[in-house]
Amino acid sequence: MAYDVAGDGPAVVLLHGYPFNRSMWREQVKALSADYKVVAPDLRGHGETEATKNATMYEMARDVAALLDKLNIERASFCGLSMGGYVTFSFYSLFSSRVQSLILADTRPQSDAEETRRVRHEQAQKISEEGMKAVAESLLQKVLTPETLRERPEIVSRVREMIQGTKPEGAVAALRGMAERKDHSYLLERILAPSLVIVGSHDQITPPEVAEKMRRDIPGSRLEIIENAGHLSNIENPNQFNNAVKKFLDAQRWR
């Protein structure tokens, strides 16, 4: 399992989305590592981490727990974006005592609807036959805002590179794992860890109304809407994202 560790202090674990890798957290690692020990792994089958035939959200959560054991980290704050949020929910359901606080970014607790599940399996088949380039452009349209697609070629190039650099077998396993993931809606009212919900104002995949419902269902949680951002709110508006995360983490640190 490939990972980066930067800084010292209370541990913060950053879990990336599909089909990306730990480099998506570049701005967050830089912003947080002055005050925190930031751990950014590549999840199973992504980036430089080995791919396996199966990659359920629970298996990925156990991978993260094993990494924390290796690093002698007993408890940490978790920030999961999109699929990283699914892994975070799974981690909390398995190891709640190890979670200091939660940051749930551009994600949802529900399992897939039947149509979404079907699309994931079709996409997995397409990637198996044609590789990641076959899905890169359609994914870019979904995860970035139209303004970013038109006016910010450096971000488009960065995200495209992550997509095309993902191992096809890793992407296929992750798609199937997401399609069959458990519904964690029941968990929300039971979450005791301080929680921050984050969403891009133009997120098409997990829109603000989904985030607002999570905020209502998680006791005492807060919502931050990242302006001028889509599904990759941490990349499209890193300044607002970083400020929200750091303010939240600092508040827990000095309670």
Features:
alpha/beta; 7-stranded mixed sheet; 11 helices; Rossmann fold; 255 residues; single chain
Shape designation: globular
Task: Let me know the average pLDDT.
Answer: 97
How many β strands by DSSP?
A: 7
Helix/strand structural class: alpha/beta
CATH fold annotation: Rossmann fold
CATH architecture: 3-Layer(aba) Sandwich
Q: CATH superfamily assignment?
A: Alpha/Beta hydrolase fold, catalytic domain
Rg on CA atoms, Å: 17 Å
Residues in helices, as a percent range: 40-55%
Order of neighbouring strands in the sheet with most strands: 1-3-2-4-5-6-7
- Low-pLDDT residue spans: none
SSE topology string: EEHEHEHEHHHHHEHEHH
User: Count of helices?
Assistant: 11
- Tell me what portion of residues adopts beta-strand conformation: 5-15%
Note the main sheet. 7 strands, mixed
CATH class, named Alpha Beta
Overall tally of domains: 1
Walk me through what this model shows.
The longest helix is centred in the middle third of the chain and has 17 residues. The chain has 255 residues and is of the alpha/beta class. The chain starts with a strand and ends with a helix. The chain is built from 11 helices and 7 strands.
Brief synopsis:
The protein is an alpha/beta fold and 255 residues long. It contains eleven helices and seven strands.
Topology at a glance:
Elements: E1 3-6, E2 11-15, H1 26-32, E3 37-41, H2 57-70, E4 76-81, H3 83-95, E5 99-105, H4 114-130, H5 133-143, H6 146-151, H7 153-165, H8 168-179, E6 195-200, H9 208-217, E7 222-226, H10 233-236, H11 238-253
Parallel strand pairs: 2-3, 2-4, 4-5, 5-6, 6-7
Antiparallel strand pairs: 1-3
Helix pairs in contact: 1-11, 2-3, 4-8, 5-7
